[in-house]
Amino acid sequence: MTTMAIQGKGLVKRYGRRHALNEFDIAIPEHAVTAILGPNGSGKSTFMRMLTALVRPERGSLTVLGERPSWQLNRKIAYLPDRARWYESQTVAEAVEWGTNLLPGFDPNRAWQILESLGLEADMEVGGMSKGQEARLMLAVCLARDVPLLVLDEPFSGIDMISRERIISALIDNFSERRQTVLISTHEIAETESLFDYAVFIRDGHAALSGYVEDLRAERGSVQDIYRQLYM
Amino acid sequence: MNEVIVGGMRFALDLSQPLYEQVLDQVRSSIAKGEIALGEKIPSVREMAQALKINPNTVMRAYQELERDGLTETRRGQGTFITTDAEKVRLIRYRLAEEAVDEFLAKLGSLGFTPSEVAAILRSKGGEA
Predict the structure, then answer these.
(1) Under an 8 A CB cutoff, do B53 and A194 touch?
(2) N or C: chain A end with fewer CB closer than 10 Å?
(3) How many Å apart are CA A175 and CA A178, to the nearest integer?
(4) Number of neighbouring beta carbons within 10 Å of residue B95
(5) CB-based contact (8 Å) between B18 and chain A?
(6) Which of A32, A176, A222 comes nearest B46 by C-beta?
(7) ipTM exceeding the 0.90 mark
């Protein structure tokens, strides 16, 4: 039987009167690459923030790697928040040093390898970077960490095609080398759906559909088709 | 559907069908067609995943199935190679031919053609039925 890396039951979170998550049930398999899909405002980011204890559920239970989310557990999670920015005054080399000193599981050799494959150089300054370059830097910092769980909230949004392709290629290398549990939220479904083992479709704060992508393809077609069926 | 050539083999993946089966079928037919020779090395899981832009787990699953069928063999530290056994390749060619014929007969059957009518059509096309 498959072990679940993440399990949530009856999760509720409101912002004012609006439900971000509403009786949300979820189970995400270990060592798989899972897509978290849904329109803006469906609750994807709220769920991802919950995994790292940045948001607490009002009701319901959540276990991540067998524990309740907490700052101690975050040692085991590499998390790329949506709309994330890096320190403007740092260079790439300083970012690697920062990661080496402060991030659990951070492997500087691996960081340099990934940075090189993503086309970033040591002396580049974050303040002078394009949005795509900055996104690549932050992804490299996440991928350089040897931790059991990788959570990427919209790593492709607003990023040029070349950066997206480089990021996808770096992710495929990462999946080949490590048995990590990976969660990725994205709107770039057509380009990324071939990367996923498992998918969760969130609608109005709860899971409208979830399953192994190859089974979903056999039963209902491409992830993109299913997305259209669910949200149109 | 874009066609991609990896290690001499042709791939065109349709995202509305399971990818694992497509990778498996397309490697099999590359072997049957001789696009890749007996004993030749096939791309590593990682190289194949990169070229096709798909999850390495999907490639791995297809490769495991090829190995179970005896079409490939993995040599420790060297990679995965197409079998050197010509008999296995001959069998796979016939299996693919049978599958194509079954599909063809099922389609004509659903259009109401009898076996003798199908045979007549094949003869008129110059085939030997």
Answers:
(1) yes
(2) N
(3) 6
(4) 13
(5) yes
(6) A176
(7) no
Q: How big is the A-B interface in CB pairs under 8 Å?
A: 56
> What are the tens digits of pLDDT across the range A82-91?
888 899 999 9
- CATH hierarchy code of domain A4-231: 3.40.50.300
pLDDT at B129: 45
Helix (H) or strand (E) holding A114: helix A108-117
Report CA dihedral (B30, B5, A196, A177) to the nearest 10 degrees: 100
The model's pLDDT over A172-187, given as tens digits with 9 standing for 90+, comes to: 999 998 889 999 999 9
A4-32 pLDDT tens trace = 999 999 999 999 888 899 999 999 999 99
Which of B13, B55, B58 should one mutate to test binding to chain A, selecting the residue with the greatest count of A CBs within 10 A? B55
pTM: 0.89
- CA A69 to CA A57: how far, in whole Å? 10
**Contact map slice: A 122-161 vs B, CB within 8 A:** none
The count of other CB atoms within 10 Å of the CB of residue B45 is 19
Any residues with CB less than 8 A from the CB of A86 and at least 6 apart, and which?
Answer: A95, A126, A134, A137, A138, A141
Separation between Cα atoms, residue B117 and residue B129, nearest integer Å: 11
Q: Which residues of B touch A173 (CB under 8 A)?
A: 46, 50
A180: tokens are 């990590």
Handedness of CA A83, A84, A86, A92 (dihedral sign): negative
Q: Which CATH architecture has domain B3-84?
A: Orthogonal Bundle (1.10)
Going from N- to C-terminal start, the domains of chain A cover 4-231
Selected residues 11-40 of chain A with any CB under 8 Å from a CB in chain B: 32-33
The residue among A195, A120, A127 whose CA lies nearest residue A156 is A195
Tokens of B3: 């066609």
Q: What does the alpha-carbon distance between residue A91 and residue B39 come to, in Å, rounded to a whole number? A: 49
